[in-house]
Amino acid sequence: xxxxxxxxxxxxxxxxxxxxxxxxxxxxxxxxxxxxxxxxxxxxxxxxxxxxxxxxxxxxxxxxxxxxxxxxxxxxxxxxxxxxxxxxxxxxxxxxxxxxxxxxxxxxxxxxxxxxxxxxxxxxxxxxxxxxxxxxxxxxxxxxxxxxxxxxxxxxxxxxxxxxxxxxxxxxxxxxxxxxxxxxxxxxxxxxxxxxxxxxxxxxxxxxxxxxxxxxxxxxxxxxxxxxxxxxxxxxxxxxxxxxxxxxxxxxxxxxxxxxxxxxxxxxxxxxxxxxxxxxxxxxxxx
Amino acid sequence: xxxxxxxxxxxxxxxxxxxxxxxxxxxxxxxxxxxxxxxxxxxxxxxxxxxxxxxxxxxxxxxxxxxxxxxxxxxxxxxxxxxxxxxxxxxxxxxxxxxxxxxxxxxxxxxxxxxxxxxxxxxxxxxxxxxxxxxxxxxxxxxxxxxxxxxxxxxxxxxxxxxxxxxxxxxxxxxxxxxxxxxxxxxxxxxxxxxxxxxxxxxxxxxxxxxxxxxxxxxxxxxxxxxxxxxxxxxxxxxxxxxxxxxxxxxxxxxxxxxxxxxxxxxxxxxxxxxxxxxxxxxxxxx
Amino acid sequence: xxxxxxxxxxxxxxxxxxxxxxxxxxxxxxxxxxxxxxxxxxxxxxxxxxxxxxxxxxxxxxxxxxxxxxxxxxxxxxxxxxxxxxxxxxxxxxxxxxxxxxxxxxxxxxxxxxxxxxxxxxxxxxxxxxxxxxxxxxxxxxxxxxxxxxxxxxxxxxxxxxxxxxxxxxxxxxxxxxxxxxxxxxxxxxxxxxxxxxxxxxxxxxxxxxxxxxxxxxxxxxxxxxxxxxxxxxxxxxxxxxxxxxxxxxxxxxxxxxxxxxxxxxxxxxxxxxxxxxxxxxxxxxx
Amino acid sequence: xxxxxxxxxxxxxxxxxxxxxxxxxxxxxxxxxxxxxxxxxxxxxxxxxxxxxxxxxxxxxxxxxxxxxxxxxxxxxxxxxxxxxxxxxxxxxxxxxxxxxxxxxxxxxxxxxxxxxxxxxxxxxxxxxxxxxxxxxxxxxxxxxxxxxxxxxxxxxxxxxxxxxxxxxxxxxxxxxxxxxxxxxxxxxxxxxxxxxxxxxxxxxxxxxxxxxxxxxxxxxxxxxxxxxxxxxxxxxxxxxxxxxxxxxxxxxxxxxxxxxxxxxxxxxxxxxxxxxxxxxxxxxxx
Lengths: 287, 287, 287, 287
Description:
Chain A is of the alpha+beta class. Helices cover 15% and strands 37% of the residues of chain A. The longest helix of chain A has 14 residues, at 133-146.
């Protein structure tokens, strides 16, 4: 079991009345991930907010209407993750005709994952590989090997096609390209957000993280195509078709944003069954 | 009440084993639209198929695995539509902070509706209009006035941005552009498919149709930006974020497709309350 | 020496007054290519036209203003090509700092060859290869191996980036992608048009052809990335930065176009030094 | 007559051997623009360089190969501009069939000016305007009114189509969009670089500037679609099909660049015939 202590500190300046925020900063409630000791502190005492849970998606959306002036949103929680662990060699693909109805959206193209343009490309590289977890892993590896990580090399409109052409990006771009390639060979894949446990401190302070879940063997398995985190230590916030759906903050209004500050510590305590996240060859699922 | 008699005839040649089809050809079950006398005839007696209903979306997906050789799929039904009719002047927008959680996906960009790139453009043209149904209508009118309908002028990868630049398209392109512009001013909008009742026969035989629903006054209202159909006579098949989600047929495998044949007749019978579809200045909803 | 007998028949219907045409259908005059027995027949006796020679570019532009009604433009010529033939192993690249001023435009991106977006991609695949003819050949081979030829798979707006993503195209698309990749590693490359001598008749009737010239060893060498022609039999019409510059016909006005009809025969006569075009491992230049 | 005193200071750090630079920082020699008192100082005494003049283009390219370490390139000159001044109402368009051969490239699309995608759009807005200078001015005004100037809002790959969609940019983007729209209605237009005399100091220090020349009445007339400079005070450096051709510095190699420093002063001296640049309704040409 992984035990993470999480703190997220967001800081804004609202410049005009009528600013609305949608946040995905609450740790997801999933069968594999339990959350306790949550604290949410919002600096504006008169801001109105609600926390809405999407049961279908295992995620929580914090919606907040703020007033002009400074705004701080601090969230802290303890999260316990008991991964579903499986042997990659035993995980098959689910034939398209057997995919559940609620999984179908994840084989279709989306804003940043134009899989419809990649059929020839993905088919040529991955179409003839044996079906199963190993094929998704091959796509993940290909993306990691062919794209260079560079901070600030992409923007909010950068898509999988751009990344395929320009071969540079941040974790979000790696995730979009992997998703698009998976969908182009009919593997359902979705965008997941969390925190980048294990990321190299030389690449910057701890941050939100984007990774991928692929639907295999009737489960969503976790992949980290940017290779920047230790997957076992990724805590899940939200999932969607791509970054359009689950930005950690979607802001409507005139707002100045500071860099988010994130702090994650893994607890180690054999007596409690807590172990440190490590790299593993096993397949992991938190869904 | 509108009463439509619908026939859809699809004809394929399956060229290799292992062809899967997802169809959205069943008339939707909605509070405003009831379906009776349905007949589905599939020419391959040994093809396996299921019909799955998505309650959240009011639509039915026919999933079929076919064998090599000819395949015909014929669907017929009687559909009664009792529109929710409202006065446009009385229909307000729903503030972003009050949008239901299941409506949120429809303010985000999607594959063919890159609203994230259109904030300045849409804000400049429509941002300062009074909020409400009239603003959605203004967007619909703008699209109709600034894009030229031309058969075969677009492809399966054509998006709203392409249509904004090139100013030509088919009904699907008009719908994508209207949706993208709506979302760019935070109006939730979705892609809907049906049949093109009332289309000018000189433009071709009856066909599937793409139109738009905008979430206003806590309801989804119908708009026809291509202006090619009589909205009151549009029978609803399915809705989604854009054409990626609700193609009438999504095909996996090696298949040759003929043109679909569609036949829709409106019944007129005052005794039964059936009236002919006509153009109207009222706001209509079938959801 | 190669000796080609060429006939080009173009057929149009001019639908309204004021139609202007620019044609590149005259065989180029180059030190390696001589033209004799030219005949140009224009069916409209009252159409005004001029033939302008661009000495810098070794090509001739036929400019014609036509009247409403049918228009036929027939061109025939005898062309003798004495290739500059070289050993690929002896051909070096010209360092950027030594490129002549009139060659510089061909290392910059152009409409259909967005080399500026391909630096990482091209650098990763071809940046570390030994410099020289072999590097251009490696790019040519890569394009031929990774793109599939399919008639009518692209349009007039399809660019090198599209072809890199979608991996399908016609000769023009192969040429654009090869040019963009060459420029991305600072190899000057230009678009050339001719006729597709040697093309497989099963792929369609004889046609205009698009190929590539790369500036190496202070000369422009010929490459055929689509691999559909016998390069030794390609007669040169015109060169430019990409297809935008040297379409065989650029039309201003309301005109209906038929398919061009092209007929090329190679003469074989040892007494006259005429040999048949064959595939060769030597480097060829007609410039 | 306008008399400008110009200083350009460029500062680089060459990080590895083998850095080549192409600069367009020399004031152009044109019939309307004469240059005197030039000084070029290159800090690396052992750097090799040449200054090449392109007579066809009225511009000079400084090509320099530098060594690792700091590099400063300082250029100063006195420039006298005697504009060709004309009455806009007297300036006609040149019919396509009468355009000189060397002007033709400027009606074709280029890397950043995809006029081929804008025929419907430009035709709809500007196709039916009376032909002449006023039509080019209408395009210039439209761009200025529909695009917002914002520093750092675009990148090196931003094109006219992007600017048309996103409606924001810097002077280079305004120029590309105006050029693309002109070409889409068959008005030859080219990209010109100079210095931004008269720019509002609140928008930043003096800088290089991008503007447009349109071929009308057998001359290239100057337009400033971003509206940030006083056109009469723009000194010409170079022209090309778009920014791909005439960046003030094109760099091959591993180089760190500082911001350029530019200083331009207009001299006023009635005795010498020097007047200050002012806004004018007359048409101006420096070519």
